[in-house]
Amino acid sequence: MSKDSYRHIVSPGSPGGPLLFAFHGTGGDEHQLVGLGKDLVPAATVVSPRGDVSEFGAARFFRRTGEGVYDMDDLARATRKMQGFVAAHVAAAKPNAVLGIGYSNGANILAATLFAAPDLFDAVALLHPLIPFEPDVKGTLAGRKVLITAGRRDPICPPQLTSRLDAHLRALGADVTLDWHEGGHELRQNELEAARSFLAGISKETLK
């Protein structure tokens, strides 16, 4: 377990405030979502790691063998490593809430880390996740708050798999909010506003 197991950025927030982990999409880097994270939760300290896998030069958090076809052994490796990274930062910061936001491949590693260690996060915002397998949750998702955003015409994250993930997480006790737009894999304003409302609400609840 190490705070430095990934190349990463820490953008400080209010002392003792929320800790927000931000996970970029394929081809992004640790800079991609830091500004968005600060905009969504101004009081948060944002921690943003860079994926340690290169796919033809594009950074990712785990390997895949094709579009939507995951290398499950490498996903397991990456999940263990990310769990340790997040836990190390939480132990050092002792925040009043632990939040996560991820886009596409970043949403997938965030979701996988939540499944492996549900107690690590108070709330996660998964922007266009693709979970093509049945999650094996190590514990309970009761009390965990999850926002899923998706496009109804997303060619990378088929809507039926988004709906299946939504139903599965609800069945496991998570408090899920699902927000759609009519487009594809791109981020749209409505889902960013949904993430803002979702994460702001979590912060206020935790700060009470």
Fold and architecture overview:
The protein is of the alpha/beta class and 208 residues long. Helix content is 35%, strand content 24%. The protein contains five helices and eleven strands. A seven-stranded mixed β-sheet has the order 1-3-2-8-9-10-11, with helices on both faces. Strands 4-5 form a two-stranded antiparallel ribbon. A hairpin with a 2-residue loop joins strand 4 (53-55) and strand 5. The longest helix has 22 residues, at 72-93. The chain is globular and about 40 Å long.
- Number of H- or I-type helical stretches: 5
Q: What's the end-to-end separation, in Å?
A: 31 Å
Report the biggest beta sheet as strand number plus sense, adding barrel if it closes. 7 strands, mixed
Query: Spans with pLDDT under 50 lasting ≥5 residues?
Result: none
Shape: globular
Could you tell me the strand content as a percent range?
Answer: 15-25%
DSSP, total strands: 11
Listing every helix as H and every strand as E from the N terminus to the C terminus, the arrangement reads EEHEEEEEHEHEEHEH
Helix content percent band: 25-40%
**Nearest-integer average pLDDT:** 94
> What spatial order of strands do you see in the largest sheet?
1-3-2-8-9-10-11
CA radius of gyration: 15 Å
